[in-house]
């Protein structure tokens, strides 16, 4: 390191210059040429550049199912456990960044809101050249999944043999990411920005890289309209160390960044010449022991040690430099941290190495470099969402706010803006004058999206009022509810009625899901919500519902129990809604349509566009059953409640939460519709025991994603292994915790053979469109192995030429 003592502030910019800056014009020219090459030749350019720059001969750009399946077997168990712990910490920190939908009434009748919507297509660049940085995939993939981004594409450089690091593939499977492209450097960024036959164009590109990757991201943003997380180039760290610092610790921190690459930069600031000397000696000693010492030595040659007068001067230098990583190796780290204005991430005290942020503390390691910490933050959950604002004015709101807008628009000379308000105010004045007739009826119908949907007797009925409706909470002496005050038999005291409104559960769920408590109904299983929705809307012997077979059988059961007709709109052979589904439903007089997505028993998501069309055109309630949504890579329809007032979303604690025995289901809908469900529900439908267990589960929600990820990994492994079995004809794509598998032998015989071996699956051969199919739930790793072994043995028993006998 170059040592400078007490430099004048006027000379600091020269000391702070990054080593890559001098080569910027040449780098930009090379990156532009690569973009042109990819734009003109697509996949062929990526294959050619892989051979030229990575010395890798590729036959395909995409990682195959077989490569995914083999990856986990190559990752040591100890490393897998470390990755899972890091993933859990990163999820915990990033999940806490979720914000519920913001709703504000700025004045009477003027309602404004803002909600987060995931970026639809994201590209994650994972450096993988001299050191495959699987930790970067954790840092980018975890928030992408938490945000609900529907399409995630990973690009990472191939190794010389054409493979991708098995650890990177293991992490991809852990996160449920199945599209990994063997492309690195500027060409990967170009592919993500432009799109090729193998690489879909994305809306936003994430990830750190060398100077070429950084230049490519900036070019993509400047000229191709693709958003980027930030300019994240060569790694850097600045350490502020006073005489309390441990020289060995400081040297290790400096080397941890220097070993990233020869263009990395490390900076040491100290007010102690002795510390600088000791650190220099430690650098020499520790450098000799590093496997990547040649790389680190090149980075150190471009790095600085600066002796300054005091902590104030060191902070001023650091804030001007704006480091990617800032380590405060001082006894008064907390006090200094309060004065930091420019840094990507800060590490406080003598026992907080920068390496913990790189891997597993929970904060994100994708950070702004090259001084961009003056303007940019590091990657967070917010990086993967857009914040969309909404506003709705009532007639009262427009009458109050309209004149303000008219005055301002006229002052700016924008007459059309003013006229858009004036016309509406005039129409309101006319309606008010008429004050009756068809116009008033039509206005009322528009204001009430449930007009004609709710049974008249339900509209008229008075709901049952329990004692706990009349007196909320508890008092020292409770004699209002006819409870047995002597207590209950058993280890727990269940002598008191539970909260009939389940307030605490709804508050926790609201925060987790980003909705309001008024959007939530809790049922004794989602089956209770299904039954109540039918009762709420359908007059027995008169009305009908629509189901889309093959689908969950409870919809028809609820209809039959309530003497309600069932109309069937069968799914296509690939289990999607038929092209004319919106037209069929628009012409139907049915009160409800049930859309199960991911569907049971097929496991697939229904096409979003088809569902949106139905939501806009169907005159009844649209029930989207998301029992398996936590296993899917698409955002929940709960994010669309404000847009579609006749949408009801069903979820459950039975599947991803692993609490089937709890019997707790959830319906999300507009507050007015939830009020109707609460009006007709039994008074204490959720037991005290269920409420207590649900609250405990919600408090442990961070553990849920680890369990989900493990199931997704098991699903991916089964999906890759099952097609290799000769008795398997097809494994249908699944976004649930099960797979629908079509066999080319007698599926019922396979089912019986599995039962004889002590393995029970679900026989779906009689379901519409599911001939020859069994539904296989993803189990534990051991159960999955037993299932595959059993199916292998069953296949081996089939005589030659006996396949395709179903």
Automatic annotation (TrEMBL):
A Pfam family hit: Aminotran_1_2
Record: residues binding substrate: 235, 257, 260, 325, 358, 412, 417
Binding-site residues for NAD(+), renumbered to this chain: 125, 187, 210
Pathway: Amino-acid biosynthesis; L-histidine biosynthesis; L-histidine from 5-phospho-alpha-D-ribose 1-diphosphate: step 9/9; Lipid metabolism; Amino-acid biosynthesis; L-histidine biosynthesis; L-histidine from 5-phospho-alpha-D-ribose 1-diphosphate: step 7/9
Keyword NAD: yes
Name of the molecule in the record: Multifunctional fusion protein
Active site positions, chain numbering: 324-325
Cofactor annotation: Zn(2+); pyridoxal 5'-phosphate
GO function term, MF aspect, one: histidinol dehydrogenase activity
NCBIfam families noted in UniProt: hisC, hisD
Chain positions found as N6-(pyridoxal phosphate)lysine: 655
């Amino acid at each position: 390191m170059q040592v400078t003592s007490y430099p004048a502030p006027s000379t600091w910019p020269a000391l702070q210059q990054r080593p890559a800056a001098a080569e910027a014009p040449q780098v930009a020219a090379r990156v532009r040429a690569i973009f042109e090459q990819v734009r003109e030749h697509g996949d062929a350019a990526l294959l050619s550049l892989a051979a030229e720059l990575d010395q890798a001969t590729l036959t395909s750009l995409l990682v195959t199912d077989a490569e995914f399946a083999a990856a986990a077997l190559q990752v040591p168990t100890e490393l897998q456990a470390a990755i899972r712990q890091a993933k859990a910490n990163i999820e915990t920190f990033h999940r806490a960044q979720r914000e519920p939908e913001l709703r504000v009434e700025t004045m009477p009748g003027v309602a404004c809101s803002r909600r987060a919507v995931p970026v639809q297509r994201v590209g994650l660049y994972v450096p993988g050249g001299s050191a495959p940085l699987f930790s970067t995939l954790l840092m980018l993939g975890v928030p992408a999944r938490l945000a609900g981004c529907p399409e995630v594409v990973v690009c990472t450089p191939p190794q010389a043999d054409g493979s991708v690091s098995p650890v990177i593939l293991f992490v991809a499977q852990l996160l449920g990411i199945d599209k990994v492209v063997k492309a690195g450097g500027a060409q990967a960024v170009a592919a993500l920005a432009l799109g090729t036959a193998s690489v879909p164009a994305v809306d936003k590109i994430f990830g750190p890289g060398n100077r070429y990757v950084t230049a490519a991201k900036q070019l993509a943003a400047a000229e191709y309209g693709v958003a980027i997380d930030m300019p994240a180039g060569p790694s850097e760290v600045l350490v502020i160390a006073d005489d309390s610092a441990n020289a060995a610790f400081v040297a290790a921190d400096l080397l941890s960044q220097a070993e990233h690459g020869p263009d990395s930069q490390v900076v040491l600031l100290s007010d102690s010449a002795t510390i600088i000397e000791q650190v220099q000696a430690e650098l020499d000693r520790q450098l000799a022991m590093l496997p990547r010492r040649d790389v680190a030595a090149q980075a150190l040659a471009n790095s600085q040690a600066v002796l300054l007068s005091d902590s104030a001067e060191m902070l001023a230098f650091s804030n001007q430099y704006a480091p990617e990583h800032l380590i405060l190796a001082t006894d008064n780290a907390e006090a200094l941290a309060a004065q930091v204005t420019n840094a990507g991430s800060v590490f406080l005290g003598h026992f907080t190495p920068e390496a913990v942020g790189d891997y597993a503390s929970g904060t994100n390691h994708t950070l702004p470099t090259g001084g961009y910490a003056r303007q940019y933050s590091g990657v967070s959950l917010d990086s993967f969402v857009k914040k969309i604002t909404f506003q709705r004015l009532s007639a009262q709101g427009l009458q109050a706010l309209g004149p303000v807008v008219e005055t301002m628009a006229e002052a700016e000379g924008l007459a059309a803006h003013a006229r858009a308000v004036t016309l509406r105010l005039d129409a309101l004045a006319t309606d008010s004058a008429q004050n009756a007739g068809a116009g008033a009826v039509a206005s009322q119908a528009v204001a009430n999206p449930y007009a004609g949907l709710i049974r008249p007797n339900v509209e008229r009925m008075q709901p049952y009022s329990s004692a706990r409706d009349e007196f909320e909470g508890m008092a020292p002496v409770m004699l209002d509810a006819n409870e047995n005050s002597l207590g209950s038999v058993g280890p727990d005291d269940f002598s008191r009625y539970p909260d009939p409104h389940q307030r605490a559960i709804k508050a926790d769920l609201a925060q987790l899901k980003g909705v309001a408590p008024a959007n939530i109904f809790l049922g004794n299983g989602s089956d209770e919500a299904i039954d109540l929705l039918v009762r709420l809307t359908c007059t027995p012997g008169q009305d009908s519902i629509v189901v889309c077979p093959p689908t969950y059988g409870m919809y028809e059961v609820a209809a039959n129990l309530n003497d309600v007709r069932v109309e069937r709109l069968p799914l296509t052979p690939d289990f999607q809604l038929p092209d004319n589904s919106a037209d069929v439903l628009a012409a139907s007089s049915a009160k409800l349509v049930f859309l199960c997505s991911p569907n049971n028993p097929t496991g697939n998501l229904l096409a979003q566009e088809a569902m949106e069309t139905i939501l806009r055109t169907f005159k009844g309630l649209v029930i989207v059953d998301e029992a398996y949504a936590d296993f899917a890579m698409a955002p929940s329809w709960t994010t669309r409640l404000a847009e579609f007032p006749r949408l009801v979303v069903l979820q459950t604690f039975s599947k991803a939460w692993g609490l089937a025995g709890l019997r707790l289901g959830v319906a999300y809908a507009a507050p007015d519709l939830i009020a109707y469900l609460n009006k007709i529900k039994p008074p204490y439908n959720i037991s005290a025991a269920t409420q207590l267990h649900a609250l405990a589960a919600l408090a442990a929600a961070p553990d849920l994603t680890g369990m989900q990820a493990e199931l997704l990994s098991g699903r991916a492994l089964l999906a890759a292994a099952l097609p290799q079995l000769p008795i398997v004809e097809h494994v249908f794509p699944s976004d649930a915790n099960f797979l629908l598998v079509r066999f080319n032998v007698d599926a019922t015989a396979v089912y019986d053979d599995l039962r004889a071996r002590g393995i029970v699956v679900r026989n779906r051969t009689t379901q519409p469109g599911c001939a020859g199919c069994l539904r296989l739930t993803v189990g534990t790793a051991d159960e999955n192995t037993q299932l595959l072994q059993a199916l292998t043995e069953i296949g081996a028993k089939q005589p030659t030429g006996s396949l395709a006998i179903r």
